[in-house]
Structures are given as structure tokens and as C-alpha cells.
């Protein structure tokens, strides 16, 4: 019996979408107001889902408290109230688009979740704009 458990989390972060190898005009044409040299911010919501067999002894797929701790350590403590471009090493040379952010988060959490479990991460940049990543 495979079941999916999910945990919702939240963090606030600033970023700027741009490519260092493009002119300001090229960046502005592609990224618009998200190319603001002074950055801009979002109130991100995150849903992390783990799917696996229910443990017959515990009745859990995995302990949600453990999942909560992983999210806090790998995402919230490293991203919350940070400038993603300047403060998060993974974005030193990676444009912090929602697509890239969700993949970075998935990779950080994946290394802490047993391989027999499937992992899905949904990242809401705004209430209407969100991305989903389930791995390759």
C-alpha cells in the first residue's frame, strides 16, 4: 500500500533574474521587472511530498516530524530572509528562477530521504505561479 504524505512550509526571499553574460537590455527584454538590479522578493510556499509503502509497525510512510526537520534544515534555514543571488551558494552561477529553485530544493531534500521513497516538491512563487519537480 503506497501512500503520499505532504508537508507545507514557507520562506521569504529576494532574487534577481538575469544572466551575467547578457547586456542589461537583453536581460530586461527577457526578465522584465524581475531583472531589477536592486532585486525583488517573494513569499514562497513549498509543499514537499513523500510517497512510499506504509510501515506496518508504525503506520507511517515516514514520520512527518522528521520531514519537517529536513525542510527546516535544508530549505527554511538556508533560504528564509536571504537574497538568493548573494546568500545561497547554489545560485552563485545559477539564475534563481522558480524552476531552478525547485530543483535545488529537491536535490537538497532528496539526499536526506531514503531512496525507496518518491519525492515531489511544489514551489509557489505567488498564489497563481508555481512549479513542480519530481526528479529526472
Automatic annotation (TrEMBL):
SUPFAM superfamilies membership: Tetrahydrobiopterin biosynthesis enzymes-like (SSF55620)
GO molecular function ontology, one term from the record: metal ion binding
Biochemical pathway: Purine metabolism; 7-cyano-7-deazaguanine biosynthesis
Alphabetized InterPro entries for the sequence: 6-PTP_synth/QueD, 6-PTP_synth/QueD_sf
Keyword Transmembrane helix: no
TM region(s), chain numbering: none
Family: Belongs to the PTPS family. QueD subfamily.
Protein name per UniProt: 6-carboxy-5,6,7,8-tetrahydropterin synthase
Amino acid at each position: 500500500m503506497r501512500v503520499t504524505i505532504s508537508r507545507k512550509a514557507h520562506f521569504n526571499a529576494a532574487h534577481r533574474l538575469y544572466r551575467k553574460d547578457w547586456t542589461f537590455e537583453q536581460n530586461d527584454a527577457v526578465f522584465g521587472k524581475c531583472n531589477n538590479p536592486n532585486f525583488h522578493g517573494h513569499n514562497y510556499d513549498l509543499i514537499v511530498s513523500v510517497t512510499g509503502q506504509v510501515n506496518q509497525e508504525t503506520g507511517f510512510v515516514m514520520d512527518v516530524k522528521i520531514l519537517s526537520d529536513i525542510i527546516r534544515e535544508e530549505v527554511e534555514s538556508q533560504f528564509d530572509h536571504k537574497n538568493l543571488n548573494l546568500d545561497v551558494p547554489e545560485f552563485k552561477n545559477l539564475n534563481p528562477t522558480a524552476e531552478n529553485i525547485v530543483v535545488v530544493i529537491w536535490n537538497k531534500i532528496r539526499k536526506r530521504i531514503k531512496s525507496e521513497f518518491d519525492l515531489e516538491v511544489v514551489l509557489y512563487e505567488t498564489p497563481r505561479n508555481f512549479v513542480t519537480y519530481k526528479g529526472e
